[in-house]
């Protein structure tokens, strides 16, 4: 993640699942944590392993219940960028500034999604134009508030509960985006074959 040749660690974390927990997401503390590898090599060749939490200093501050992460150099500047998916909050894209810091470019790139249940994501050059494209999988159309309402219904009528569960858990389509040279993306049209997949999606493979 940083400019050194050492591998760093990005750890996704959850957040409170109260129905109102995501309303103030932009002002909440960073959810995911970035640890910089500060390993030192001693004169005798032995290594001293140490990781430092540089989340705040790096600017890689995610807001939401972390579900998945994808890394790739989407702007071809030689540095690894980061995309994080969330449950119940917009996804986030961070551009690596190549100096140990990141900039949140989610809004400019247009890849926030609809704040549903994002799962895995992957960068790959699907149209072979030299720029990495982004494919995001979604699980189901689901909310915590809706889940609680379903359990309340269960006490009165099991049939109603079952029907609402099926309606609330309908499949959610994946979100494929195509990059262009200016760092912006556009959604691939709805009838593209990349979207013709049914079922709950938990993974994507490059």
What does this structure look like?
This protein has 206 residues and is α+β, with helices and mostly antiparallel strands. It contains four helices and 13 strands. The protein has helices at 55-58, 106-109, 144-154, 158-168, and strands at residues 9-11, 33-37, 40-41, 47-48, 51-53, 65-72, 81-87, 92-96, 102-104, 118-124, 133-138, 175-179, 185-187. A hairpin with a 5-residue loop joins strand 8 (92-96) and strand 9 (102-104). The longest helix has 11 residues, at 144-154. The chain is globular. Mean pLDDT is 77; it is low at 157-171.
Q: Gist?
A:
Helix content is 15%, strand content 29%. It contains 4 helices and 13 strands.
Q: What is the percentage of strand-forming residues?
A: 25-35%
Please state how the strands of the largest beta sheet are arranged side by side: 6-7-8-9
How many strand elements?
A: 13
Helix content: 10-25%
Low-confidence stretches: 157-171
Calculate Rg over CA atoms. 20 Å
Please give the largest β-sheet. Answer: 4 strands, antiparallel
Number of helices: 4
Question: What would you call the structural class?
Answer: alpha+beta
